[in-house]
Amino acid sequence: MNFSDSEIVASVMANDDHRLVDQAADADVIFLNTCSIRDHAEQRVLNRLKELQHLRKTRPGLVLGVIGCMAERLKEKLLEHDELGMRVDMVAGPDAYRELPQLLADVEGGRQAMQVILSADETYADITPVRYGGNGVQAFISIMRGCENYCAYCVVPYTRGKERSRDPASILNETRQLIQAGYREVTLLGQNVNSYRYHGENGPVDFTALIGRVAAADAQLRIRFATSHPKDMSDALLRQMAAHPNICKSIHLPLQSGSTAVLQRMNRKYTREDYLDRVRAIREILPGCAISTDLIAGFCGETEEEHQATLEVMKDVGFDFAFMFKYSERPDTLAAKRYKDDVPEEVKTRRLTEIIELQQALSLDSNKRDVGTVQEVLVEGVSKRADSHMMGRTSHNKVVVFPCATSRPGDYVQVRIKECSSATLKGNCIDH
Ligand code: SAH
Ligand code: SF4
Prior knowledge:
four-stranded parallel beta sheet, Rossmann fold, binds S-adenosyl-L-homocysteine, alpha/beta, 15 helices
C-alpha cells in the first residue's frame, strides 16, 4: 500500500519539476512515507528521522517531511521540536499528496507546514504513478482507499479514512498503460478489495465485475489482489477467478485468530466456522488454490485455549503462507479503549513462535506437494542468492529459483520442480 502511495507522491512531485535521486544525501526534499500499523513500524520511522537529521549540516535548507499514516495519527505532535527531540519541516496525511507542492512552498524560509485533512472521495484516480524501484514486470494498482471495518486492533480506519472506490475506467486505463509498457502482472490493491463498489453512470461495478474487466484486458497479464476480508469473499468472485486462467490462483485471506470469541473481540464480523466455510468454497470452486493469511498472537484477553484454536485452524486449512504478528496496542483504537493489553510480552512471544514454527512446517508441506510437478513461472529477474539462476513466481505466488540463461524478466517459462525449502521451490526450465 505504501509502496503504491509513494509512486503517486513521486508522480505529484515530478509534475512539480522535482526528480528522484538515488541517495538521501543528494536530496533537497526527503519524504518518509510511514506506517502506523504496529508500534515497531513507528519506532523505525523515528530512528530513520533521527539518522537523517545530520544531513541538515551538509544541505542547509533540506526539507524533511513525514507523510502517510503516522503523519495522520500524530499530526502537529510531529512538528513539536521539544516533544520529538528533532526537527520535522512538514507533515502530510494520506489524502494530502496533491498538496505537497503547495506545502513545499509553505515551508520556505524555515516555516513548518501541515495538511492532515482526510477526504471522503480522493482516490488519486487521474494520477499516473511513477513506477520506480520495481522490476518492470509486476506493478501495483491502487483500486480503493481507506477502510471502515474498524477491526478493534487496527489504526487504519483512523489514519486512512473512509472507504472509497476508484473509477473503474481509470483502473482499466492504468492497466492498459502498464501492458503497453511491458508489465506482465498487476496486483489490485486495497484494504478490503472484495468490498470494492463504484457507483457509475451505468450502475454499480463490484470487485467481481472489475477483476473480470482487468483480466480481459490481456490474457498474458497476470492479476493478483490483496487484501480480501473473509466476510466479503463471495462465491461469485471465486467463480470469476475460475473463469480466468490469468487471475492467479492464490488468495490472501486474513484469519487473525482461530477462536470465535477472539474474533468477536476483534470485531472481525465472522466466526471460525464462517472462515472455514469460505475455505471450503475456495477448495470446491478453485481446487488447488493457494491460501495465505495474517495472524495476530496475544490479542487482549487471549487464553491458552484461544491460542490453541488458532493453531488448530492453521492445521485444518494448511495455509501455504502467513504474515504473523504479535499484538501491538495502537492508541485510540477500539481495543485500546475497551480492553486491557493483558497478555504478558513473554507469552505473546512464545505464542508467536509456536505460530511461526507451525507455519514453517505447513509451508514446507505445501512446497513438498509441488516437487515433481511442472509449474508455469513468470520470470522476475536474476536470483539474489545465485547470479547464475533466475527467479520468478507461480500462480500460487510461490518463489521458484532455476538455472536458465535464456529466459528474460517477463517471460513465462515451464519449470519442473526438483526440490524445495519452506520458502522456495527449485527446479529446471523445460522449454528453453
Ligand atoms: N486490511 C487488511 C490488512 C491490514 S494491516 C485486512 O483487513 O486484512 C495488515 C495486518 O497487520 C492485519 O491483517 C493484521 O494481521 C496486522 N495488524 C493490524 N493491526 C495490528 C496490531 N495492532 N497489532 C498487530 N498486528 C496488527
Ligand atoms: Fe484494519 Fe480491519 Fe480495515 Fe483491515 S479490515 S485495514 S485489519 S480495520
